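Support request, priority: normal
Reporter: lab tech (M.K.)
Component: structure prediction queue

Hi team, I submitted a job for Indole-3-glycerol phosphate synthase from Teichococcus coralli yesterday, and the status page still shows it as pending. I've pasted the exact input below so you can check whether something in the sequence is tripping the parser. The sequence length should be 269 residues. Please let me know if I need to resubmit or if it's stuck on your end.
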Amino acid sequence: MNADTLPDTLLRILADKEVEVRERAAATPLSEMEHRARDEEPPRDFTGALCSAVAEGRIGLIAEIKKASPSGGLIRDPFEPAALARAYEEAGAACLSVLTDGPHFQGSPADLVVARGACKLPVLRKDFMIDPYQVFEARAMGADCILLIMAALSDAQARELEEAARSLDMSVLAEVHDQRELDRALGLNTRLIGINNRNLRTLKTELTTAEALAPLVPADRIPVAESGLRNAEDVHRMAAAGARCILVGEHLLRQEDVTAAARAMVEAG
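Reply from support: The job had stalled in the queue. We restarted it manually and it finished. Here are the results:
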């Protein structure tokens, strides 16, 4: 990671996250958090759920639960993680993604706990992972998968975080924004390669990002198109590029009938 090339927003988030992790680790030591993580029931198979959906001819939808975002502000009010989880499961989503960052997304670990408890779907902890402590914390709260944002991590950090996740039998979604980050992500063991259509500097979304990068993902990996998907046509474009797995949040959360909106995405393939 080269801090000089990162957008100011991401730099602020990462700086806040370092302080947050230190405070959490001071309150609950790493040894205790690791004990809690390993004492949890085995994780649900996040990667397997996506593969099953695609094998059955459906779109592998990772449906996201988040209250707000830096770019979109407050997204859903009232915000009910359990009800959203049940709606997504009923719609045929393969997995959930739950934002746990508080300062910038108004999320919390409690959102993940409640959402996962309301359904049988595997759950991704969507947060800015920078320290192995957060991986054990994620498993302790019930997460089945973690997100690694390659733009925010050095290769050594990414490997360390992935190794921690693998030691807990968790899945890893490595997120990239360009070919350089893709090449770095392919140095990891994870099969899940998230391709984020959102430009980190402008915050605009361009589906051409996934259309350019998905064909470069080797056949033994699974491209996941993220951000900017709003309708069946968008899903078709991603599938045509080779990404039959998608992560969708804001579009679904802004719909009155979340179940119908998610089902339309799942069945678009």
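DSSP finds twelve helices and ten strands in the chain. The domain at 3-266 is CATH 3.20.20.70 (TIM Barrel). Let us know if anything else looks off. Ticket resolved.
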